[in-house]
From TrEMBL:
This is Uncharacterized protein.
Length: 741
């Protein structure tokens, strides 16, 4: 610590500026629980830009120094987190404290202050001097190469959109749009001017870059005003990193069924719009780099979407929601908290979820690649058999709605504007009529006899309806980029002590063929059974109460080898440790990351833990022996009661030790090697003519071995965490199912 203080102590005054303004925590929102590398520092009030830039530069140069400065001078509590923490920030917008976000053309708004060109054009002398000192400590900077522009991502976070001190969410988003346009104009002008230049050699530069904002509607009922606002901004190509929504209609709408249905349809059609919009046409140039660990191929307009689906949802609401999801092009990552109950139409929920997420129609139209089912209240065998029946049907729309087979094949059409829509039928087969001012794309016809005036259709955001045949324009050309495979799935049950796990094999057998990444919130199936249901898995994560483990099968997939048998005893840590100690064991080779919660053994007991003392000590010694032998495990976290602190030093010995796995060599270095080799063996024509030797021909296996030897080894990370003595039942879902970062 003294050495860190000697090298970095000059930044103490800058860190003092940030004292009390920063705090660190794991993600709280459920969809982020399943993410990787989403930890970040969160900002609670207006920031000092240059101080943030300097500590971010330190994070780029030396992670240990960055953590030390924030811990000592900024009083940021990292708990016992040992992983690298990127310099990325959430700006919490305190809307209650702002009477107006914009006035007289001047913005008192964090994104403009943080992310416009002022940070580049008008740095203070003290800031420049401090940044030069940081640059001097970066040994990677070279005198013959340009310096580094450190991009610092910033996101605005609106935690509660039911604000009252400003003129509602509409005004907030309007002001954000103006701010984003202002940032874009300033940077466009700056980059065209003479002051725009690359970073000088052996220098660092810090640039705050705006990422799309985060909006949470978790505490808001869906009202006509809210639906209108979200629809307007989606159509205006406003981008979001994340959007979360409580799927609950305003109770005041119960007496006005027509307005209720239009409001819900407008909200679902906006959140799950069928138009894929370009970021090039957005208000500003967002920083939208895709994290390789995000499990999606591209970022779309709403980023990740989370829906809180309460037990109050009616079957017609579930229809509307899932019919919109089936054609959505706004998000590639969706999470759903499924609070349905077995006595409240759970079978209908699962039938519509099958259609909206996994059916052929959904895979042909929807952009969703990553899906999480969270806090599932009901997943009975009856539920899943109905789910599987929809997926296996040649005519899923008819299976879904219980309609007879049509004389004409199902098809897609566009419903013309102002066309009457019959959406709810009584015993006399009569229905009120709705209409919308714009055409509706991807209306699905089914059970069509080819003659009736009214045709059965699925209308996105309305569900099953009837429309007049003359109002349909049949689609001949698919406007989408092609089918999207749903490759990532996470499943977590609300009651891990008493779920119906018998249904899970049926479910995985129905959907598992496309999955590459699977997370299960309990050790509820044998590993071999999971792999049989999901033959193309690359990664499997098991998040049980005592053990969390992540398996990686990429090496087997690369050489087309069948996956080995991997069954193990999750409830016996000593036995599991012995299996992982066997370097020839397939289990040892496949388990990459693991978290052991030995606190679970004493959960719920008050007073002494003497009864479990022998077992915990035995388990800890077995884990230490495993670390001595195992050469494949990249990360291990051991959570213990506080009285076992003495073991911390023993585990620390294995922290940052190299293992028998190299880092993946970046493509740029591979190309550099191959181009250098080509130049070396090429030579001149004269030289080649006088030589009897031909350049060696390297096969793919030889090149792969060369690249492996050229790559530095992965360093194992070991985290030993003392428990806060909370019982398992007291922990939130986010803590119980914390991700293996």
């Amino acid at each position: 610590m003294a050495e860190l203080d000697r090298r970095w102590g000059f930044l103490a005054p800058w860190c003092a500026v940030l004292k009390g303004l920063l705090h660190y925590e794991y993600p709280k929102r459920d969809e982020e629980v399943w993410d990787v590398q989403k930890r970040r520092l969160q900002i609670n009030s207006k920031k000092i830009r240059e101080a943030l830039a300097l500590v971010s530069a330190v994070a780029h140069v030396d992670q240990s120094a960055w953590r030390y400065l924030l811990d000592k001078y900024c009083e940021v509590d990292f708990r016992q987190e040992s992983e690298d923490i990127p310099a990325r920030f959430l700006v919490f917008m305190d809307l209650e404290a702002k009477e107006d976000l914009a006035y007289e053309g001047t913005f008192d708004l964090d994104p403009v202050q943080l992310c416009d060109t002022h940070q580049r054009k008008h740095p203070t002398d003290a800031y420049v001097a401090a940044l030069q000192k940081i640059s001097a400590l970066d040994k990677r900077l070279k005198s013959d190469k340009p310096g580094v522009d450190i991009l610092i991502p910033v996101r605005l976070y609106f935690p509660d959109m039911d604000i009252v001190s400003v003129d509602g969410p509409q005004k907030v988003f309007n002001d954000i749009q103006l701010a984003e346009k202002m940032i874009r104009r300033k940077w466009a002008k700056y980059e065209q001017g003479s002051k725009s230049r690359p970073v000088r050699p052996r220098h660092l530069r810090c640039t705050f870059v705006l990422e799309p904002m985060i909006a949470s509607f978790n505490d808001c009922w869906i009202t006509p005003k809210m639906a209108e606002m979200v629809d307007h901004h989606v159509r205006a190509n406003v981008w979001f990193s994340q959007m979360s929504l409580w799927v609950k209609l305003d109770p005041d709408l119960k007496t006005d069924v027509r307005t209720l249905r239009i409001t819900f349809a407008k909200m679902m059609a906006a959140v799950f719009d069928s138009t894929c919009r370009s970021p090039e046409l957005a208000n500003t140039t967002y920083h939208t780099k895709i994290d390789p660990s995000s499990l999606v191929s591209k970022r779309l307009q709403l980023g990740s979407v989370h829906l809180e689906c309460s037990c109050w949802l009616q079957p017609k609401d579930v229809e509307a929601m899932c019919s919109a999801i089936a054609v959505s092009r706004t998000t590639s990552k969706l999470s759903l908290r499924l609070q349905m109950r077995e006595d409240q139409d759970s079978v209908k929920w699962w039938k519509w979820l099958a259609y909206g997420l996994f059916s052929k129609q959904a895979r042909a139209r929807s952009s969703i690649e990553s899906l999480a089912f969270i806090s599932i209240r009901s997943m009975s065998t009856e539920d899943v058999e109905a789910f599987a029946a929809v997926l296996s049907s040649e005519h899923p729309e008819e299976e879904l709605c219980g309609c007879p087979r049509g004389q004409i094949e199902e098809g897609d059409a566009t419903l013309v504007s102002h066309a009457p829509i019959r959406w709810c039928f009584d015993e006399q087969d009569e229905s009120p009529v709705l209409s919308f001012p714009s055409p509706i794309r991807f209306v699905r016809t089914f059970s069509d006899d080819g003659e009736s005036e009214w045709v059965d259709v699925l209308v996105p955001a309305l569900g099953r309806c009837q429309v007049q045949r003359d109002d349909l324009i049949l689609d001949d050309i698919d406007a989408n980029d092609g089918p999207t495979a749903l490759t990532s799935l996470a499943i977590q049950f609300a009651d891990s002590d008493n779920p119906d796990f018998d249904s899970l094999p049926i479910f995985l057998a129905a959907v598992g063929s496309s999955l590459k990444f699977l997370t299960l919130g309990a050790a509820c199936m044998e590993l071999d059974d999971i792999l049989r249901c999901c033959p193309n898995l690359q990664e499997l994560s098991i998040c049980d109460e005592l053990v969390e483990a992540r398996f990686n099968f990429v090496e087997y997939r690369a050489v087309n080898e069948p996956l080995p048998s991997l069954n193990c005893n999750w409830n016996d840590i000593a036995e599991l440790s012995r299996d992982l100690s066997n370097t020839l064991s397939p289990l040892s080779k496949c388990v990459r990351r693991i978290r052991i919660r030995l606190t679970r053994l004493v959960s719920g007991f008050s007073g002494s833990t003497t009864f479990y003392q022998t077992r915990i000590e035995t388990d800890l010694k077995a884990l230490l022996n495993m670390l001595e032998m195992n050469r494949s495990l990249e990360f291990i976290s051991v959570v213990v009661p506080a009285q076992y602190e003495a073991f911390a030093k023993d585990f620390q010995k294995y922290h940052l030790q190299p293992i028998d796995r190299p880092h993946t060599l970046v493509l740029k270095k591979k190309i550099a090697f191959l181009s250098a080799f080509d130049r070396q063996v090429g030579g001149s024509k004269k030289a080649r003519a006088g030589s009897s030797r031909s350049p060696p021909a390297f096969g793919q296996d030889v090149l792969e071995n060369i690249f492996k030897l050229a790559s530095p080894p992965v360093l194992r990370r070991v985290q030993f965490e003392l428990s806060d003595d909370k019982s398992w039942e007291q922990l939130t879902d986010e803590r119980r199912f914390r991700p293996l970062e």
